[in-house]
Amino acid sequence: MKWSESGLMVPTCIFEAATLKHSVIPVCSCGHSASFNPFGLWWHFQRRGWDDRLGPARQRFWCRVCHSSHRRKVHPVKLDLGRLAETDFALPWPDEREWKRAVARVR
Ligand SMILES: [Zn+2]
Q1: What values do phi and psi take at 11, rounded to 5?
Q2: Would you state the pLDDT for residue 5?
Q3: How far is the CA of 14 from the centre of ligand 1 (A)?
Q4: What sign does the dihedral 4-31-17-58 (CA atoms) show?
């Protein structure tokens, strides 16, 4: 976790994005972006043992639009954070026990 200049907490990994209730939004250089629900996303990374820090995590995403037009996996140029929304793309959520255990580890 880090602090912004205006004194807000800024998540540095997907787990923190979930605890702070931010969607994770990969943005491609083509302009396409998709908003992901952070809980399912964290769990997806956790189960695979992937690094969920926002820097390394970027390499796990690729743009669906670029892939269908060029048949190439293009990684996003950045991961933005947004407000949780009903329309977020949601991967299967962690079960509550797993989530509570993870939260207990950092507190
Ligand atoms: Zn793209």
Answers
A1: -65, 145
A2: 80
A3: 21
A4: negative
pTM of the predicted model, to two decimals? 0.89
Average pLDDT, the chain: 94
Contacts of 51 (CB under 8 A, 6+ apart): 45, 57
- Residue 79 Cα to ligand 1 midpoint, Å, equals 13
CA of 63 to the centre of ligand 1 (A): 5
Residue 25 Cα to ligand 1 middle (Å): 13
Q: 9: which strand partners? A: 3
| 25 token code pair | 């939004």
Q: Decide if 22 contacts 11 (C-beta within 8 A).
A: yes
